[in-house]
Amino acid sequence: MSDSLTLAPADPWPARPASAPRAALPRIAVLVPCYNEEVAIPSVVEAFRAALPGATIYVYDNNSRDRTRDVARAAGAVVRTEPLQGKGNVVRRMFADIEADIYLLVDGDGTYDAADAPEMVRRLIEDRLDMVTGVRVTPEEMTGAYRPGHRFGNAVLTGMVRLLFGNRISDMLSGYRAFSRRFVKSFPALAEGFETETEFTVHALQLRLPVGEVRTAYGERPKGSASKLRTYTDGLKILRMIVMLVKGERPLAFFSATGALLMLVAVAIFLPVLLEYLRTGLVPRLPTAVLATGLSLASLLSFACGLVLDTVTRGRKEAKRIAYLAVPAPEFDAGAIGRRGPT
Predict the structure, then answer these.
(1) What's the pLDDT at 220?
(2) Angle between helices 41-51 and 117-126 (to 10 degrees)
(3) Residue 231 has what pLDDT?
(4) pLDDT value of residue 49
(5) So what's the pLDDT on residue 20?
C-alpha cells in the first residue's frame, strides 16, 4: 500500500494560513461524476479520503434515480448536481465550478484503485506535468473487469489517435486522470458523453502539453452495480469524435485525403471514357465524363478548403496556447510530497 498524501483541501474560496507558503500546500479536488452509483460511491469516497486526506471529494450527480446523492453526502463528499445528461457535460460543469491546484478525475463505479492517487499527484508535481493518465492493468483473476471487446476497442481507437496526433499515450479511454490547473482552466470541454476522454487526450497531444502515465489496477464493479457503458453505441460516438477532431485539428490532412479519394474515383471512371475516345475519337459516355469532371473539381475544392482551414486552425491553436499560458504556472514544493512506500 502507498503512503497517504496529506494536502490542503480544495475549496472555491480557501482560507490559507498566513504562515503556510502556497508552494507547500497544493489544493486537491477529487472529481467524481456519478449516475446511479448508490452501491459503489460510498467506498469510492472513503477510499480517496484515505488516500488523499487533505483533498476535497466532489461528487456530481447526473440525474441519478437512486440514492447516490444521499449516500455520497453521508460518506463525506461535497455533492452537487448537473442536469444535462452525459459525462462530458458533468466534466465541463466540474471544471468550470471548482477551484483547485490539482484535479483528480475518477469514475464513481469503484473500478479504479485509490491507492495510486498519491503517485499520480506526485508525478504531476515533481515532473511538472499537465495530465497524468492511470493506465489500466487488470489482474488475471479479474478478467471480467476489462472485457475483451472493450480492450480491443480501446486498442483500436487509441492506435488511431496515436497515429494521427502523436505516440505519447497508451490508454486513451481511461477515466482515471490527474490534471494541472492550467489544463483544466484552458480545456474547451465540448464533448457530451464518454467521448470526453478522447477530447482530453487530443487536446493534450495537439498543444504538446507535458503528459505522463501511471499503471493502476483496474478491478470489477461492486456486486449490485451496473455498467453504463454501451459497447457499440459509445464506441461509434468515440469514433465519430475522433473523425470530428481530425477534421477540426488536422484539416489539411483530412481534406487532402478526401480530395485524393475523389480524384482516384474520378480517374477510375474517366479512364474507360478516355480509352474509348483515343480508339474511336468519340465520347459516347458523356454523363460519365461530366461526372468525372465534377469529381475532379470537387477534389480540387476539397484541397483548397484544407489549405484555408489549416490557416484557421493554426490561429485557433495559438489562441488555445495563449489561454493555457494565461494561467500561472504552479510552484509547489516537491519535497513536501511524501515518497511512496512499498506496495
Answers:
(1) 82
(2) 50
(3) 62
(4) 95
(5) 43
| pLDDT value, residue 154 | 77
Q: What is the 3-state secondary structure (H, E, C) of the chain?
A: CCCCCCCEECCCCCCCCCCCCHHHCCEEEEEEEECCCCCCHHHHHHHHHHHCCCCEEEEEECCCCCCHHHHHHHCCCEEEECCCCCHHHHHHHHHHHCCCCEEEECCCCCCECHHHHHHHHHHHHHCCCCEEEEEEECCHHHCCCCCHHHHHHHHHHHHHHHHHHCCCCCCCCCCCEEEEHHHHHHCCCCCCCCCHHHHHHHHHHHCCCCEEEEEEEECCCCCCCCCCCCHHHHHHHHHHHHHHHHHHHCHHHHHHHHHHHHHHHHHHHHHHHHHHHHHHCCCCCHHHHHHHHHHHHHHHHHHHHHHHHHHHHHHHHHHHHHHHHCCCCCCCCHHHCCCCCCC
Domain assignments of the chain as residue spans, ordered by start: 8-248, 250-323
The neighbour count for residue 234, using CB atoms within 10 Å, is 18
Question: Cell 489544463 sits at which residue?
Answer: 183
pLDDT, residue 238, reads 78
What is the fold, at CATH topology level, of the domain defined by 8-248?
Answer: Spore Coat Polysaccharide Biosynthesis Protein SpsA; Chain A (3.90.550)
Please list the ranges in the chain whose pLDDT falls under 50. 1-4, 11-22, 141-144, 338-343
pTM listed for this prediction: 0.78
